[in-house]
Amino acid sequence: MNLICDEGPTAAIGNLRFTNGGVYADYLVSGLPFIFLPKESQDRVADVHADLLRTLPSGALLSGLTVPVATRNITRRMIYAHPDLHPDTATAGDPMPRHTEGWVQHCRRWAPALARSRSRPRIHWLSLPLEYGLGGTTAAGGWRRRLDSIVGRDKDSDPSLAHYRELAAAMVGRLPGALFAKPASVEQIWWHWNYIASRHAWQRPLPGQPYDPHARLPGSAFTPVWKDPSAAALRGRRWRAARSDADIFLRTYRDTADGVADSYQVIVALEKYPDTGLRWPHATIFKVLDDLTTAATTLDWTIHFTFDTAEAAVATAHNVITNIKDQARQRGRHADSDDELYRKLISGRQLASALKRGSAERGLNAAVLITAAATDADTADAAISEVIRRYRSQKLELKRRRGSQATLWRALNPGTENTAALHEIRNPSTANAFAKFVPLLATRLGNNVGVPLGETITSPGLREIVLNDLIGAPGRDNPGNLVIGGSPGRGKSQCAKNLIRSWLELGAGMHLIDPTEAREHQTALSTFDETNKVVIDAKNPRFCLDGLRIFPFEEAAERTVDHLLPQLGYSAVSPQAARLKGLLAPGSRHTNGIGSLNQLIGFLQERRPDRVAVDDDLLIALEGLRAERLLAPMFDDTLRRPDLSKQLVIWNFGGLKLPSITEEYQPHLHQQSTPSQRAAQALYGMAVELAQSLFFSRDTQPDILVVEECAAWTHSPGGQRCANTVIRQGRKAWTLFVGINQSPRTDFGVLEDEFIEQRICLGFNEAAIAEDTLRWCDRDLQRHPALLTDYVTNTSPAAMPNYGDDSIDPRHGKVITGREGEAWVLDEFGGWGKVRLFSAPTRELAELYDTNPQRKRARMRRKLGA
Fold it and tell me: Which of these, 101, 125, 550, 776, has the minimum number of CB atoms within 10 Å of its CB?
C-alpha cells in the first residue's frame, strides 16, 4: 500500500507561515453574534461578511475549528475579574495583594466544576497567500511568483520579511474592523498544523502566547503526518480500499515519537445549493455543525476563495448561459421533459444580473469543505452521515467521493490547497449572496473576565464558559444592573446565590433584602465571615432602625420624614408634615435635643409655650406607631445601631406584606391597608434608602443592592424613585443593582428598565409570562418564532414518562437530569443566547443553597442517623 505524506510548514516567523507551496500570513478573526438577534443586528452581520468577501485576496483560506479550552485559562480569566488584579490596574511583577487571596482560593474552588464543563468553542482561522501580491492568486500574481522562483529570491531574508509583513498588513488592513483580525503567534501556527494533521486526536488547547513578529520555529518543529486512505494499510487490503460510503475516509497518523493517536477524517464537499437559495436569516449552514458536534466527534468547515472582477464573472456566466442554450437545442424535444437545464439557465441569468448591479459587487468562487473527525472510523462515519442528512433537508448536497480523501485533505492545509483539485467543486456566486451564509458565528456570551455564570448551549454541540463581570461594568461606562427571572424551582435562586457568593469574595459591599420566610440567603451565607456580616431581622429585632440614628446626620431628617408620613397618614403638603420637617431640621434637633424618634415623642409630650395645635396630631400618630410590633425598632433607644459599614448586610423581611400602589396612594383604600402592611413598607423602603445613602457616599469600592420579590416596592412612587436613582446613577458611584423576581417585566418594566441591560431569564410555567419576558428583552418573535417555542417547551423541560404500567417513577414531573438551570441570557453588550447555569461548585455550598424541603429532610435524617 502506498502511504502518502504531506509536508507541513518549512518555517514560521511571527505570523508568517513558509511552505513549499508559498508564504502565508495567519490570523485569528473574531466571530460575530447572530442567532436570534434583531433584524438590524443580523443585517449588520451580513454586511460585515459582504465587506470581508469584497476585500479578501484571491486564494484566501478560512476555517472554523473547534478547540478545547484549558481549565487554568478559564480560572485565570476569573482571577482577573478582581478590581485589584485586573490587567488594566495591576502592575506586572508586583506581588499579589494579601486581600485578594480569598478570591484566588474561590477561583480554585470552581476549578473542578469548570473542568467538568469541557469547554469547546469554535475559532476562526484565516490564511492569506502573500507570494502573489495584494490581489492574491491572480494570473498576474502567478507570473510574479514564477519570476521570483526563477531568480531564486531568498524568502526569509530581512528585505523579504519586511515585504511580506508590509503586504500582510495591507491585506488585513482592508478587512472589516468588526472582525478584529489578530496575528497568530508561531506557537499557534505550530498548533494549527498539528490540529489539521491529527484532527480530533490532537486535543491540546490553542496556545495563548502573544504574537511576536521576530519569534521563529524551524521546519523540524512541524513533524510530518502520514495518510492512509480508508485505513487500507492498517487493515491489510491489497485492492481498492473503499467498498462502500462507510469506507470513504482518511486515516492520518504520526511517527511514534510524536505520541499522537490516529485520526479518522471524512472530508466532503458542498457541491450543490438549492436553486431558489436559502431563506434569510436561516442560511447559517455551518450552525448545523455546531449543533451536531459531540465530545466524540469534531465537525469543522473550510472555505477556499477565489475571486473574479464583476466583468470577468459576467462574461463567464454568459458563456455558461450560451452553453446551456446549446445543450437544450441539441436535445430538442427531450429537453422539455427535463427541467435541470431550465433551472441552470435561470440560475445563470440571476447570477449575471446580480453581478451587474453595482461596482462594489465581485465574482466569488467558493469551495466549501466539511470535515468530520474522530478516533475511530465508525464514529466519524456516523457523524458525517447525520450532517449529510441534515443538509439534504435544506436541499444542500454533500457527496462522499471515492478516492478523494487524500486530495481533499490538501485543501485544508495552507501550502497544499492549490493541488487539491478544488475547481471541481467551486460554485460561482457573488459577495452579497455568499455573505448570507454568515460563517463567522460567535456563541460567546458575557464578559472576557468575571465570575462563573454557566456554559452556552445555544448550539448544543459546543460549550463555552460564560463569565459575568457586573462589577466591572461601570469601568466600561456601562450600568451594572441585572435582573434574574423565572418560575419557582427553575434555578434562579441557585444562580443568584452563586453570583452573590462570588461578588462577596471579590470584596464587594452588599445589602441583600430577603423576603423569604425560610431566611434562605442567611442560610446560604452562613459560612461567610461573621465579623464582616450583620443580619437584621424585622420580626426579631436586635438593632435600632430609627432613621434619626442610623442615617447620616445631614440627611437623617429628610429620609425619616419620607418614611414616616405614609405611616402617619398625612400628605407631604399637610400642616402636620410641615411641622414634622421643622422639628427635625438639623438646627431644631440640636437645640431641642431630638436625637431619636423616642426623644421626638418626649418633646411633643411637653407643654411648652411654643406648642402648636398639630403637635397633638403628631403625638397621637407617633405613639400609635410606637405601639406597632414591627415598628418597635424605630422607637427603642435601648437597641444598638447596626454596623451598616460591614461588607454584608442581610435584611430578613420574611412574612412582611407590603400594600399595593393602589392601597397606599388612594385615600379611601389607604385606610383599608393594615398597619403591618404600612409598617412593612416603611421598613423595606428604609432598608433600600440606607443602602443607597451608604453606597452613594463612597465610590472607592463596588457595592451591590440585591432585592428579591419586590413588586410592591417597585410599584410604589417612593420605591420607583429610589430604584430609578440606583439603576440610573449607580454607575457613577460604583453601585450595582440586582433584582430577582418571578415576573420580571411586570415588576421591573415599570422602572427605567432601559438601564437594566443584563437579564437572566429562566424557565416559566406559564407561556404568557415567557412570551412577555422575551418581548421585554426586545426579541422579535415574528422573525424568530422558534425562540418562543424553545423557551416555552425546551428550557429545563420536565420529565413526563408514561409507560402505561403502574410503576412509580421518581423522575416524573422533575426537570430532566442534565437540563437543570437552563436560561436565556441578555448580556451587557446585547448578546443573546441559551445558557446552562452552573450549580454550586461544591457539595457543601450545594446543601446550603438548596431550598427543596424533601432533600433538606433527607439530609437531616442522614445526619441524625450518623
Answer: 101
Written as one letter, the residue type at 489 is G
CA–CA distance, 249 with 373 (Å, rounded to integer): 9
Residue type at 55 in one-letter notation: T
Residues with Cβ < 8 Å from 249, sequence gap 6 or more? 229, 230, 231, 264, 265, 266, 377, 380, 381, 405
List, as one string, the DSSP characters of 235-262: HT--S-S--SGGG--EEEE--GGG----
- Contacts for 76 with CB less than 8 Å, ≥ 6 apart: none
From CA 13, how far away is CA 154, in angstroms rounded?
14
Axis-axis angle for helices 614-626, 575-583 (nearest 10): 80
Residue partners of 252: CB distance under 8 A and separation at least 6: 197, 198, 199, 225, 226, 227, 228, 262, 263, 265, 409
Q: 10-residue block means of pLDDT along the chain (866 residues)?
A: 69 96 96 93 94 94 95 93 82 78 94 90 96 75 56 74 95 96 98 97 94 96 94 79 85 94 96 78 90 95 85 54 59 57 54 56 87 97 96 91 90 94 87 89 93 94 94 95 92 94 96 89 94 90 90 86 82 88 89 92 89 90 88 89 93 76 49 71 85 90 92 80 93 95 90 95 92 94 92 89 78 85 95 95 91 82 74
Q: Are 233 and 356 in contact (CB under 8 A)?
A: no
Q: Where are the alpha helices (DSSP H) in 643-766?
A: 661-665, 667-670, 675-696, 711-715, 717-729, 744-748
Instruction: Give the distance, in angstroms, between the CA of residue 806 and the centroid of all CA atoms in the same chain.
Output: 44
- The alpha carbon of 370 is separated from its chain's Cα centroid by a whole number of angstroms, namely 26
pTM for the full predicted model:
0.88
Tell me which H or E stretch contains 601. Answer: helix 597-605
CA distances from 699 to 82, 301, 506, 510, 734 (A): 16, 49, 16, 14, 6
- Which amino acid is located at 373 in the chain? A
Contacts of 306 (CB under 8 A, 6+ apart): 58, 59, 136, 137, 364, 365, 426
- Please report how the helices 675-696 and 553-568 are oriented relative to each other, as an axis angle in degrees rounded to 10: 160
Contact 301, 408 (CB under 8 A): no
